[in-house]
Amino acid sequence: MKLENWHLSITLVCLLFGLLFTSNLKTQLQEVNPTAARNKTLVDFIKTQENKNQELETEITASRKKIEEYHATKSGENGLAPLKKNIEELTFAAGLTKVTGPGIVITLDDQEKARTSKEPEMYLIHFSSILYIVNDLRAAGAEAISVNNDRVVSTTDIRCAGNIILVNTHRLAPPYRIQAIGDPDKLEAVAQSGEYGFLELGNFPVTLEKKDEILIPAYKGSYTFNYAVPLKEGEK
Amino acid sequence: MFKKKWQLSLTVAFASLGLLLSLQFSTHKALEKDLNSQNSEALAAMARNLTSKYYQLIREVWDLRTQLKLLEQTADQNKSVLEAMTREQQKLSIAIGSNTVEGPGITVTIPENDINYFGYQDVIDIVNELWNAGAEAISVNGIRITQNTFVTPGEEYSAILINGHKVFYPYVVKAIGEPAALDKGISIPSGIIDNLRVVYKIPLVIEQSEKITLPPALPPKFEYSKLVTE
Hints:
- The complex is a heterodimer of chains A (236) and B (230).
- Chain A is of the alpha+beta class and 236 residues long.
- Chain A has helices at 5-32, 35-38, 40-78, 81-93, 113-116, 127-139, 184-192, 195-201; strands at 99-108, 144-147, 150-152, 158-161, 164-167, 170-172, 176-181, 206-216, 229-230.
- Chain A has 2 domains: 12-93, no CATH class; 99-216, Alpha-Beta Plaits.
- Chain B is α+β, with helices and mostly antiparallel strands and 230 residues long.
């Protein structure tokens, strides 16, 4: 088959048409949404603040590591070994270290219908589903949990702003990936009979997989206690 | 022959168009979860949360810097190392809920009522909302909330189990933190507390107090998790 000039032309024309059409759609989308312009200040503020917070989290992670090294070298000289061991256990328990073990991985996504439906709310994954799945996994004895790349610790909050889900005040993008370390069979059974099962029945694109080894990241945020004071009796 | 070429060109053209269209759609999908497509209230709430988190992080940075300073001091080393380590030990104990803590805060009480609506998920929601409002430690009916706490429905309608143990009315949620901030934080319009009060007419009571004492929980046990050293 010979390629003739007009073949190329028609392709180019169609390509051009497509390009124009799509860019047109894009512009229209922005026009239908005047809030985009109005909220620009807020969006800029959020992005700047997210960067600042991320910098602080990086510093926190680095400092924690440095402190750990100091503990390791100094406690030996000074007979503080038992205290050091206790702190190591607490650091692990508080989710400040990366952990690995068997468990399950759950993924959740919005339904395709959310894009076309007049009531997209019905087809979106809501923060409450993630919150309740985390609760179910805890009931199944999960030892460590993460959502996307955020470690879920005692003080973790799972919320939404508009249709964006936030964990530890970090924005998440779908698909949502929930990991839990523990007895894989038990985690699976309890998840199936809880919120995960509901989503599955509701035709959401969800998956659940048992794994021999999963990796859960360390908690990068703060533990700040300005008001809570430990009582003396509880201490050594 | 001519017909065939014509078909080929058209196929190529439509394929390109289709590709572009699908690209456009995927852009659309990404936009839906973009900051720019959220309303002002959502953005304002997000900005507020990021700011309060920023102050928490700053505080943590200072705390860690102080610890490092203590550890770096050469004079009177033993004492400062011990001080730094004890601080860290206390902080982490509060984080995992293994010690008794006290401080100012708020108490949310859900008294026995005829509405019979309040359920286990409301407990999860209130606790979640309190963490967001800046709570430092929480208990429900005398049970300290940790990363292992779970709230499940009982066999009878509306019964609530915490860690597998049934709890009874009145449900009392206590949280340590800045009382006014906690109160304001959980009482936001159309938030969980507002809904329970206005929509479901639950007669819940919020009280600010200067001193609240929360009991310890058992430290967590690890059977499956292994430390990953970097």
